[in-house]
Structures are given as C-alpha cells and as structure tokens.
Design a protein that fits this description.
The protein has about 160 residues and is of the alpha+beta class. Helix content is about 25%, strand content about 25%. A hairpin with a 5-residue loop joins strand 2 and strand 3.
C-alpha cells in the first residue's frame, strides 16, 4: 500500500499511490509546552464562559478565581466535571490547577475549566492526548444560546395568536 517514504520537515511519512500522507499520532513527535515555572497554560470555553487554566505538578490542589474547588463550585456534580480529565488521563492527584474564569453561569464555567484542564494536560504531557481526545474533552462544545429574533416572544416562540 505505501509506495515510498518521503521526508516532510524531518517527519517520515508513508505516502500512498494517490498521494495521501499516512502519518500516525506516534509518528508526530509532539513536544511538551511549558513555561519557565514548569506550568502549562490553556484556555477553555463553554457557552459564554472563558477559563484561563495553568497546571503544574503538585498535590492535586484546584483553585478557581482564588477559591478552593469546593467553595467555588458548591454542587458535587460540578466538582466531578472538573475532575473528569484527570480520571480519564489517569493522573488524579498529580497536578495543581490554578484557573480564572469569567462569564456565563456556574455550569458553563465548570465546562470551560474542564476544557482548559484537558487542553493544558495535553500540552504538558502529549502522551495523554489520545485518552483525552477519545473522551471528547479536547473538543470545544459549540452549543450556545440562540439569539432572540424580532417579531418573536423568545428565540423561536411566537406571540399568542388571537383570532379576535
């Protein structure tokens, strides 16, 4: 099937007869992205919420807008949402998270922080990308509230019809 091997910017990839490049995830050598303090940064988004997330190796402490996770996200479901990326990647309790989040409600903010944590984990350790991508955590959930239209009571609801 693979006809020949060509080098693309130092990357060896098998090329088929049609010219399609067959490069697997293992062949792409991703480098960890970390700052001078050993942290990885990512931005997560959900609905109208935007979260800026920094992760670094630590004891598993999570702070959101300067508060502990239990103080900021009171509902256990929202706390569980934030812990999902660590569980899927198998690194729970190994990273400290510092996040600032603005906009939206608590549910959207929890989703934004989860998205940011997932992206930051993938940048810190590229080998975790497969598990996070398979779980769908690296994809931004693009569902947002539909805008209200003129001539309508809400986005789609019409005003009540009256024959007389």
């Amino acid at each position: 099937m693979a006809e020949e091997i060509k080098t693309l910017e130092g990357l060896e990839a098998a090329v088929t007869e049609t010219g399609a490049v067959l490069a697997t995830e293992e062949e792409i050598n991703r480098e960890p992205v970390r700052d001078s303090l050993g942290r990885s940064y990512a931005t997560g988004k959900r609905k109208d919420a935007v979260a800026r997330v920094w992760i670094k190796p630590g004891s598993g402490k999570v702070t959101v807008n300067g508060k502990e996770i239990e103080a900021y996200f009171g509902r256990p479901v929202l706390q569980m949402i934030l812990r999902q990326p660590f569980t899927v990647a198998g690194v729970e309790g190994q990273f400290d998270v510092m996040a600032t989040v603005k906009g939206g409600g608590l549910s959207g903010q929890a989703g934004a922080v989860k998205h940011g944590i997932s992206k930051a984990l993938q940048l810190y350790d590229p080998s975790l990308r497969g598990a996070l991508k398979a779980a769908g955590f690296l994809t931004r959930d693009s569902r947002v509230v539909e805008r209200k239209k003129y001539g309508r009571a809400k986005a789609r609801r019409s005003f009540q019809f009256s024959k007389r």
